[in-house]
Amino acid sequence: MEKSRIVILGAGESGYGAAMLAQKQGFEVFVSDSGRIADTYKEKLNALAIPFEEGQHTNELITNAIEVIKSPGIPNKAPIVAAIKQANIPVISEIEFAKRYTKARTICITGSNGKTTTSTLIYHLLKKAGINASLAGNIGKSFAAQVAEDQFDWYVLEISSFMLDNMYEFKADIAVLLNITPDHLDRYDYKMANYAASKMRITQNQTDADYFVYCADDTETMKILQTMKLQARQFPFSILHHVEQGAWLEDDLIHININSKEQFSMSIAALALQGKHNIYNSMASGIVAKVLDIRNATIREGMGDIKNIEHRLEFVAKISGVTYINDSKATNVNSTWYALESVSSGVVLIMGGVDKGNDYEMLKDLVKSKVKAIVCLGKNNKRIHEAFEDDVEMIVNTFSAEEAVQVAYHLAKKGDTVLLSPACASFDLFTSYEDRGIQFKKAVKEL
What we know:
Layout: E1 5-9, H1 13-24, E2 28-33, H2 39-47, E3 52-54, H3 59-62, E4 67-70, H4 79-86, E5 91-92, H5 94-99, E6 105-110, H6 115-128, E7 133-137, H7 143-149, E8 154-158, H8 161-164, E9 174-177, H9 192-200, E10 211-215, H10 219-225, E11 233-238, E12 246-250, E13 253-257, E14 264-267, H11 276-291, H12 296-305, E15 314-319, E16 322-326, H13 333-342, E17 347-351, H14 364-370, E18 371-377, H15 382-388, E19 394-398, H16 401-411, E20 417-420, H17 433-445
Parallel strand pairs: 1-2, 1-4, 2-3, 4-5, 6-8, 6-9, 7-8, 9-10, 10-11, 11-12, 16-20, 17-18, 17-20, 18-19
Antiparallel strand pairs: 12-13, 13-14, 15-16
Helix pairs in contact: 1-7, 6-11, 6-12, 9-10, 16-17
Protein name: UDP-N-acetylmuramoylalanine--D-glutamate ligase
EC number: 6.3.2.9
Main location: cytoplasm
């Protein structure tokens, strides 16, 4: 009998993982990438004798599949995706595919900002509690690859809106929505409502046995929640007001009550991850931990000793009294707002890159009060100049991480902070936000 054929679009981490799992499940597999496939993934595909193509998508090799697993980075409007849909072939995400082959339960975290930090913190708390868990999704090793090779009871999955767009049967046992702020609007017809609806797919298929954790202070979340009837048990978190069940802030203490036998409380001064945004991330993580009945002492210990994530408000060095911070993961305006909100004034801000239709208006007040100079790092910095020329004394254009750091070094004085928080994607000058962050750190170390 001929095997059913599955085609995978995109040969990055998720694509390779999906190919490996599909082959293990007995499908005939073909991988197609319109760009160049990294040598590491080529070697892995060759080792499994999985055929692939790069630099193109050949329609006839793709539109004969029973199902296509698409990388989240490929827009639904791409011509090849249109051709697949025309052929009535279902297009799904790697997460949707992998979930079919595991009985493990899932904690799924989405939101415009804070996903990586919160996912990492939840995973950290689960490991501390001795729960057999793994971390996957938008972070680390692919979910599909782990399902193919390992056995876990729980998966903590960082999930982007692009992944959610191609998830249909999938269900989160615990869904966490941190916030909804303008990001990737180019993929959603520049309509906030479309983007918000995409984020709310994190709750799809949930029953009254499941949990939904969300931020009661987030305007867009509250707006769309009013239009929906959810089955799951809901636990909000807020730093602005008291909530009956969920998490709230009072007298600089985080309180969590989910109707358990014991409430949880912890001073925000004892959190390893500081800044207002991290109070939210810690609250969301704490609610999940309480849902899983993790002991208060374990939660406190975990929240107090987690290390900060690379490229997310990461301290790099202090040189001649100037602090250098790598926040390369800030690929949208809201992330940069959080970064500026968490540092004191006297900031030399390095920003720029591929602008995804950014609205810089929300940064203006913080830039006015805290930023002394902006160092642009990108090929086209026109919109940054237009947005902030009246708010800062100096805006300088640079075209490499090394040049940006050199310029910032000369502009900063003792007590200042040089903050790389780009508010833009990295693909004009770098291969990824990680590459941008690594080059920034290297340049700082060479000062």
